[in-house]
Design goal:
Length: 112
C-alpha cells in the first residue's frame, strides 16, 4: 500500500528564473542523495498549467504507506523549496493529512 505526498505553492507572480534554478538545484540534490532512488517513485514536479497561473509549483511523490523515513526525507526537500518561495501560499499533504509549517523546523505531520 502507498501514500501520496502532494504539494502546491500559489502566488500571483510566476517563478523567476533564479527561483526556478534554485528549486532545480534542491530537487537534483535530493534526488541524487535519495537512498531508495532505484526502487521508489521520483519526486515529481508538474509542468506549469496556463489554466492555473497562480500555481507556481506543484507535484506529487508516491511513498510506501509505512515508510516514515522517505516521507520525512521529502518533507525536508519541500522545506528547502518553501524557503526559496517564502511568499507563496503552500498546501502540502501526506495522504489526507495536511502538513503543518514551523519556521525553525520546516514541514511536519501534526500530532493526533
Amino acid at each position: 500500500m502507498s501514500i501520496v505526498l502532494s504539494y502546491r505553492a500559489l502566488r500571483d507572480t510566476p517563478l523567476s528564473p533564479d527561483e526556478a534554478a534554485a528549486i532545480d538545484i534542491v530537487v537534483a540534490r535530493y534526488q541524487s542523495d535519495f537512498e531508495y532512488r532505484d526502487t521508489a517513485d521520483a519526486f515529481a514536479i508538474h509542468p506549469h498549467n496556463p489554466k492555473a497561473p497562480n500555481v507556481i509549483f506543484s507535484g506529487t511523490v508516491c511513498l510506501p504507506a509505512d515508510d516514515a523515513e522517505s516521507a520525512s526525507y521529502w518533507m525536508c526537500c519541500l522545506t528547502d523549496i518553501r524557503r526559496i518561495l517564502e511568499d507563496a501560499d503552500w498546501h502540502i499533504s501526506l495522504g489526507d493529512t495536511p502538513l503543518e509549517w514551523d519556521e525553525d523546523d520546516g514541514w511536519f505531520l501534526p500530532q493526533n
